[in-house]
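Tip: read the tokens left to right.
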């Protein structure tokens, strides 16, 4: 091989020391071999001496078919031929019990994965009220609350909800913004325009009951627990008093209230039951006050002892509950709406009656 065919650096090395010239030339030949020669070598069935130091097989020139490897793979035979057992970590298929952050090497699967600990199969069917919401109410709400903005409409910028510091002091630098003037420590949610992404819907229903008689007799608490369990289908959570209050005879640690949280199908079932079975049977009931709400899309109302008796689960087994121990309870319907106006619009479409002046 002529020296002029070598790169300039190798040419200098060859001129400096003439002894390793042949070795350097052979290495250069292997390194700068053309792809055509490498491709033609397997076809002729011979491998030149210059290419023996290269890879024996390549993904580009292998004649092996992956289908053959798949058919030849036998996991049972491979397991039986294994002389020692794999470490215990290889047999742990369950997802981690706790979420340890996004950087942890073991990540739990999503809730939709059947292997997840939080996987819930279904829904296999929708309730009647939820079917009505999906087919009729949701499109109507989006149509009624649609706000058209023609192209080119100038959006008027609004002032910041949080006040900035005037930087008159070096201690103001890096401090978080201050809250608004006036009473209250939290800001109310800004009402968002309804579109196909954020149509209001029922997210959760909470039933809460404070049992005053449980201060003297725990039987009141047991009766209330059975009643809420039959009405909601959810085992109630018991809450104990955090502080002692001598004026009310309340001692710290005494169980005094119960709470049931319903989501999904159970929430729609409970609301459907209230609208179609209980509300029409309450005598002289005007409806839910239009002033109710927490300015964040949550509507609350309550049932007295007479209203709790009208639930079909209580009415059919009325003899099981002592009449004087039947409690009333409060109901809070939590929606995905960002204002009470949109929440009332949703519940009105579902069939909940409101009366009085409606306050946004």
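Filled-in amino acids:
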């Amino acid at each position: 091989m002529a020296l002029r065919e070598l790169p300039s650096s190798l040419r200098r090395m060859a001129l400096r020391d003439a002894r390793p010239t042949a070795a350097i030339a052979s290495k250069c030949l292997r390194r700068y071999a053309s792809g055509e020669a490498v491709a033609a070598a397997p076809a002729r069935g011979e491998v030149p001496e210059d290419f023996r130091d290269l890879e024996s097989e390549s993904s580009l020139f292998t004649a092996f078919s992956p289908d053959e490897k798949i058919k030849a793979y036998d996991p049972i035979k491979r397991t039986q031929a294994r002389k020692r057992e794999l470490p215990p970590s290889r047999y742990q298929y369950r997802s981690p019990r706790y979420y340890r952050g996004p950087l942890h090497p073991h990540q739990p699967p999503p809730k939709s994965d059947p292997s997840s600990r939080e996987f819930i199969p279904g829904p296999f069917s929708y309730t009647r009220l939820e079917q009505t919401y999906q087919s009729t109410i949701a499109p109507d709400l989006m149509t009624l609350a649609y706000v058209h903005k023609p192209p080119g409409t100038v959006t008027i910028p609004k002032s910041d909800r949080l006040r900035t510091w005037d930087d008159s002091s070096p201690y103001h630098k890096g401090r978080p913004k201050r809250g608004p003037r006036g009473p209250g420590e939290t800001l109310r949610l800004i009402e968002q325009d309804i579109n196909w992404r954020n149509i209001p819907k029922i997210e959760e229903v909470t039933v809460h009951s404070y049992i005053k008689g449980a201060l003297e007799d725990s039987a009141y608490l047991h009766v209330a627990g059975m009643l809420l369990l039959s009405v909601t289908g959810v085992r109630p959570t018991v809450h104990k008093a955090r502080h002692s209050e001598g004026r009310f005879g309340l001692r710290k640690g005494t169980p005094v209230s119960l709470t049931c949280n319903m989501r999904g199908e159970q929430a729609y079932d409970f609301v459907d039951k209230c609208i179609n079975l209980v509300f029409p049977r309450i005598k002289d009931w005007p409806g839910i006050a239009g002033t109710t709400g927490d300015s964040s899309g949550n509507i609350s109302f309550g049932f007295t002892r007479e209203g709790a008796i009208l639930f079909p689960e209580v009415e059919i087994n009325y003899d099981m509950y002592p009449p004087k121990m039947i409690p009333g309870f409060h109901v809070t319907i939590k929606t995905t709406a960002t204002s009470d106006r949109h929440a009332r619009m949703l519940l009105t479409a579902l069939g909940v009656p409101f009366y009085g002046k409606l306050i946004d």
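Strands lie at 202-210, 237-240, 255-263, 288-289, 298-303, 329-335, 354-355. The radius of gyration is 37 Å.
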